[in-house]
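Listing S7. Sequence submitted for prediction.
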Amino acid sequence: MNIETTSVVAANEAFYAALESADLDALERLWVDDAAVCVHPGLPPIHGRKAVLRSWAAMLAATRYLQFVLTDVVVETRDGTAVVSCTENLLSAPEGMPETIFAGGHAVATNVFRRDGDRWRLWVHHASVVQRPDD
């Protein structure tokens, strides 16, 4: 893996780490300052950085536990843009549910990053729920 791909993978992992720890400040630092787009599974696209960040804040406020195990990670970079596709293997627990209740699922995600100086910032996140034979 070359240095550019390694830095994109690190940015992608930082995104999921911020979600798992419900770190809204880290999420804010990760997203581009303009034209952000987010598509949560089953929902219409959200446009604009502020609206995208509000959507994550609402989702994280309603979630007591969130863990991602990423598989099938593929990274492509070209001319200051990087596309990461991956499978999100998710374990979560909604707020208000007993501590012994967890839900699992899978989504495929496409995360598009733009180079901003010496770092990669998230421009587009699109996740779609998928069915697997073992579900």
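Caption to Listing S7: primary sequence and predicted structure tokens for the chain studied. Strands lie at 37-39, 46-47, 63-78, 81-94, 103-116, 119-129. The CA atoms of residues 1 and 25 lie 29 Å apart.
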